[in-house]
Design brief:
31% of the residues lie in helices and 29% in strands. It is an alpha+beta fold. It has 3 domains: 3-124, Rossmann fold (3-Layer(aba) Sandwich), CATH 3.40.50.20; 135-151 and 222-345, ATP-grasp fold, B domain (D-amino Acid Aminotransferase, Chain A, domain 1), CATH 3.30.470; 155-219, Dna Ligase, domain 1 (2-Layer Sandwich). A 7-stranded mixed β-sheet has the order 6-5-4-3-2-1-7.
């Protein structure tokens, strides 16, 4: 009997448009002989709707004009599904076996939607509440990883009520410019700015503060950027081959999704020892942060010393046709269709 998989996309997040691109790839590659597929779109205002829109309409955002019924996961585990509402206010129960959030950023990747489905007793693709919420907060992630012996980028955080002169003084006393200023809770490089001198600091802090109340200030590292895809359970994660992002300047939102100025080298041209270290650290970080299902773990390799530093963990990485996570698995011998099937089977 085919499992009914509810694929959820969109969301009340600054990464709404990335979700539309990611889910288009998932819907194009999911094995429909194995799975019965329901699609639920969440608008930018947070409204949930069942939709039968075509993939092109989802990608363009036109799906909102073709939404079917308002819906919401039922918190009653006996329902094991969605409450779908008719125009007169009556509702019906739509059973689902697995929830598959193809969401990025707040209210999708931070443990909130994972908590909804945990209450409903419905297995969910990806990490659970703890792993999702922990890895969404970059500052807390670094605390846990550092305590577990994983080398991380050097930095400190400030609250939204920061004093710019005090931040500048802390930078001078710790590691000096240049620094990277980023919101503690955001993805896809949203709100991230490279700062080379004090004059650039106020604007960078303001940009980051639009995304989160907590702002990370990190030492800028002259390094190669290496990414590793992880798949599996908390206890038994597996790694893909490694990929390298080759670009001039920061690998920011525009570089990732709006231009082709970055080159992705897969597999990454690294020596065997560095490759081994990165894969081992990726697995350790995955387990330490209670991740499950999937994650993309991002590293820096210092160009001078060769030291490896963990930068970030993304528990619901981009899944577009050019995203690094599925690309790494393709090169490792796992096609998108089989990768998606494995992720659904790993849901818990």
């Amino acid at each position: 009997m085919r499992k009914t998989v509810c694929i959820i996309f969109g969301g009340d997040s600054s990464e709404h448009e990335i979700s539309l691109l990611s889910v288009s790839n998932v819907l194009s590659n999911i094995d429909r002989e194995k799975f019965n597929v329901l699609t639920v779109g969440i608008t930018k205002s947070g409204e949930w709707f069942l939709t039968e829109a075509k993939i092109d309409d989802i990608k363009s955002g036109a799906w909102e004009k073709k939404r079917k019924k308002a819906c919401i996961p039922s918190p009653n585990p006996k329902h094991h599904g969605l409450l779908a509402f008719n125009k007169n206010g009556d509702y019906s129960i739509t059973h689902i076996d697995v929830a598959y959030p193809v969401l990025h950023g707040k209210n999708g990747e931070d443990g909130t939607i994972q908590g909804l489905f945990a209450m409903a007793g419905i297995p969910c693709v990806g990490s659970g509440v703890l792993g999702s919420s922990l890895c969404m907060d970059k500052e807390m992630t670094k605390r846990v990883l550092a305590a577990g012996g994983v080398p991380v980028t050097e930095g400190f955080f400030v609250r939204k009520s920061y004093d710019t002169d005090a931040v500048d003084k802390s930078i001078a006393e710790s590691f000096g410019y240049p620094v990277v200023v980023k919101p503690s809770q955001a993805g896809s490089s949203v709100g991230v700015t490279m700062v080379h001198k004090k004059d650039e600091l106020p604007n960078a802090l303001e940009i980051a503060a639009t995304e989160d109340d907590k702002i990370l200030i990190e030492r800028a590292v002259d390094a190669r950027e290496i990414e590793c895809a992880v798949l599996g359970t908390t206890e038994a994660p597996q790694t893909s081959c490694l990929g390298e992002i080759v670009k001039e300047g920061m690998y920011d939102y525009a570089t990732k999704y709006e231009s082709d100025t970055a080159e992705l080298c897969v597999p990454a041209p690294l020596d065997d020892e560095t490759t081994k270290i990165i894969k081992e650290l990726a697995c350790r970080a995955f387990s330490l942060t209670e991740c499950s299902g999937l994650a993309r773990v991002d590293f820096f390799v210092d160009r001078k010393s060769g030291a490896v530093l963990l930068n970030e963990i993304n528990t619901l990485p981009g899944f577009t046709d050019i995203s690094m996570y599925p690309m790494l698995w393709r090169v490792s011998g796992l096609a998108d269709k089989e990768l998606i099937s494995q992720l659904i089977e790993l849901a818990q």
